[in-house]
Write a structure and sequence with these properties.
Elements lengths: L6 E5 L4 H12 L3 E6 L2 H11 L3 E5 L5 H10 L6 E6 L6 E2 L11 H27 L10 E6 L3 H4 L5 H21 L4 E7 L3 E2 L8 H8 L10 E2 H13 L9 E3 L19 H11 L26 E2 L4
Parallel strand pairs: 1-2, 1-4, 2-3, 4-6, 6-7, 7-10, 8-9
Antiparallel strand pairs: 5-11
Helix pairs in contact: 1-8, 3-4, 4-6
C-alpha cells in the first residue's frame, strides 16, 4: 500500500505505541485521526503533527463513540489503515494476600477494554475501509491489532490481561479470513517488553538494566518507535496477511515476524516457537511484587492490583 495520501485511524493515538505510530504514518504522508480517551494527550499529538491530523475523543468500549470517531475520517479521505493500540488496566491477582478472590468485575473489565473493544473497532473500521475503492491487487486496507507476549506467557496478576491478549491473537486469523473477500488484511503485533508511558517517569537506563536482563538480544527494552516502524511496514507490505497472523517477540525487545504458518489446533509451529523461547527467561516469583512479567508495563501493588498495562 502507498501510505502517502491514505487515511489512518489510530485508537490510543495519544500515547505509547499509538502516538509513535501516528507520528510515523503522518511522516510517511498519511492523514491521521488520533482517537483517544485522554483529550490532553491526544490533542497534543495532533498539535505536534499539524496539517493532516485530527483528534476525536473516543471511548473504545462504546460503539457510538468509536463510530463517531470513524465518521470523522471521512473529512480526511478514504480510510485505509486502522491501528488498535489503546492501553488500559492490567487487572488483579486471582487471590489477594489474604486469599480473598478478585472481583469478577475486574476480570470482565479487562476483557471489555482490550478484547471486546478491539473487535468493536475492527468490525466498524472494516466497514469504513470496505467503502474505499480497491487499490492494486484488490486491496482496500489493513487493520493492525496489538496483542502482547502475555498472550503466550502471562504471569502474576495477568489472568484477565493474558486472556484478552490471547483472544486478540486467536481472532486474527478468522478476522483475516472474514475480511479477505473485501480486500482488507488483518495482522496482529504481539510486543515483548517495551518502554512505554505506563512506566511513567522511571529512568529508562534503569529499566533497561532491570528488564533487559531477560532479553536475549539486544539487552534492552523495545521502543515505541520500533513498534511504529513495524506497523508502517505491515501497512506497506501487501503480503503480510493471514499467513502471518501473529507477529511477536516472545523473549526479545523488538517485535518480529514468525514465519511459520498457523495450523488448525494447538497454534501451529509459530505458537510452539513462542512458548519455547519464553521458557528461556526467568518467570516472576510470587513474592516479587514489582516484576510482573514481559509485556506488562506495570507495577504490582501490595493489594495485588496491576496498576496499568499496555
Amino acid at each position: 500500500m502507498e501510505i502517502k495520501g491514505a487515511v489512518a485511524f489510530v485508537a490510543g493515538g495519544g500515547g505509547g505505541f499509538g502516538a509513535a505510530t501516528s507520528r510515523r504514518l503522518h511522516a510517511a504522508g498519511a492523514k491521521v485521526l488520533v482517537a483517544d480517551l485522554d483529550e490532553d494527550r491526544g490533542r497534543a499529538v495532533v498539535e505536534e503533527l499539524g496539517e493532516g491530523a485530527a483528534f476525536a475523543r473516543t471511548d473504545v468500549t462504546d460503539e457510538a463513540s468509536v463510530q463517531a470517531a470513524l465518521d470523522q475520517t471521512t473529512g480526511l479521505g478514504p480510510l485505509r489503515i486502522a491501528v488498535v493500540a489503546h492501553g488500559g488496566p492490567g487487572g488483579q491477582r486471582t487471590l489477594d494476600r489474604s486469599n480473598a478472590p478478585a472481583p469478577q468485575g475486574s476480570f470482565t473489565r479487562v476483557l471489555d477494554i482490550f478484547l471486546a473493544a478491539t473487535y468493536n473497532i475492527d468490525r466498524l473500521a472494516a466497514a469504513a475501509i470496505a467503502r474505499s475503492e480497491p487499490l492494486e491487487h484488490g486491496e482496500r486496507g489493513v487493520i493492525i491489532n496489538t496483542a502482547s507476549i502475555a498472550a503466550f506467557d502471562g504471569t502474576i496478576g495477568q489472568a484477565g490481561y493474558s486472556a484478552a491478549k490471547g483472544g486478540i491473537v486467536a481472532m486474527t486469523l478468522p478476522l483475516a479470513r472474514d475480511l479477505a473477500p473485501a480486500g482488507i488484511r488483518v495482522v496482529t503485533i504481539a510486543p515483548g517488553t517495551f518502554l512505554t508511558p505506563a512506566f511513567r517517569n522511571a529512568d529508562p537506563e534503569q529499566l533497561d538494566a532491570y528488564w533487559g536482563a531477560a532479553v536475549p538480544f539486544p539487552k534492552r527494552m523495545g521502543r515505541a518507535e520500533e513498534y511504529a516502524q513495524l506497523a508502517q511496514q505491515i501497512a506497506e507490505n501487501v503480503s503480510s496477511t493471514a499467513r502471518r497472523s501473529a507477529w511477536t517477540a516472545p523473549s526479545a525487545s523488538h517485535p518480529r515476524a514468525l514465519p511459520d504458518r498457523p495450523r488448525p489446533g494447538g497454534g501451529g509451529p509459530a505458537a510452539g516457537h513462542a512458548r519455547r523461547l519464553a521458557r528461556r527467561r526467568p518467570l516472576a516469583r510470587p513474592d516479587d511484587r514489582n516484576r510482573v512479567g514481559a509485556g506488562a508495563a506495570a507495577e504490582l501493588g501490595d493489594d495485588g492490583i496491576v496498576r496499568e498495562a499496555v
